[in-house]
Amino acid sequence: MELIPDGLHGKLALVTGAASGIGAAVVRTLHCRGARVAAVDADGEGVRRLAAQNSAFGPKTAGYAVDVRDAPAVDLMVRQVEQDLGPIDILVNVAGVLRTGQLLEMSDEDWALMIGVNATGVLAVSRAVAQSMIPRRCGVIVTVASNAGFVPRVAMGGYAASKAASTMLTRCLGLELAGYGIRCNVVSPGSTDTPMLRGMWQDGKGARQTIAGSLEQHRIGIPLGKLAQAEDVANAVAFLVSDQASHITLQDLCVDGGASLGH
Question: Angle at CA 209, nearest 5°, toward 204 and 210?
Fold first, then answer.
């Protein structure tokens, strides 16, 4: 049987939030499929280390340090990436932060941080990259949001609001860019075994409790009975940016083991 190419070989992907967790998994997955990658994160040392590791085993990966909340800095970074590596074919917005707490007790600083990184950052990077895609009339943008963006969660209201904003922002952008042949989609993970999730656990029972759910917090468990791995989310991203998804846009692909009951 002839293998079906996914069209990623030689493409240039820019991935934010690339230093760890889902972002790092997306970088590795796209790299393994033959893409060149610009790995972007506020943690400059982390992305440079990741880039060096990847480039030793295949297509070039380069690291760039930027705070996605800083729109002028993002514009400069995108121009630098295209100067260094060429036109950006793929953008994956993964950069995200989480602060838990009841909405009535949330600090203004925590709210501003989550909205800034999780929503405004998606706008800043997507806008900068899309402007270079439009003249070429091609490109793909995927935003990694969260199932918290459409399922209410206790003590996660700020995070949920920021992820809901990033989801609708991306889908509206996809409508605006469809006429240029640019596709925009969302991947919404549930509980994924990353440093962000582990940082929420109070003890060694965190994984088991997450899978089981919590009646007190009005949260069901994970029907598949396991946490997602970062690679599970990265594989969903890889599909949406591939030629195999060439007629898919404005969609939100939930990767949560059934935790949101099919949304």
Answer: 110
- The pair phi, psi for residue 102, each rounded to 5°, is -60, 145
Q: Is 173 helix (H, G, I), strand (E, B) or coil?
A: helix
pTM of the complete model: 0.95
Neighbours of 158 (CB within 10 A): 23
**Is residue 248 packed enough to be buried (19+ CB in 10 Å), middle (13-18) or exposed (0-12)?**
middle
Active-site option among 159, 163, 182, 230: 159
Alpha carbons within 13 A on the beta-carbon side of 197: 22
Torsional sign, CA 92, 98, 102, 103: negative
Pairwise pLDDT comparison (216 vs 22), residue with the higher score: 22
DSSP 117-164: IIIIHHHHHHHHHHHHHGGGT-EEEEEE--GGGTS--TT-HHHHHHHH
- Does the active-site annotation cover 159? yes
The bridge status of strand 182-189 relative to strand 252-255 is parallel
Tokens of residue 44, six digits: 């400059």
Domains located in the chain, CATH noted = 12-255 (3.40.50.720)
Residue 206 reports pLDDT greater than 80:
no
Residue 1's pLDDT is: 34
What would the two tokens of residue 73 be?
């800095």
> In the chain, pLDDT over 90 holds for what percent of residues?
81
pLDDT of residue 195: 78
Task: Assess contact for 17 and 42: CB atoms under 8 A.
Answer: no
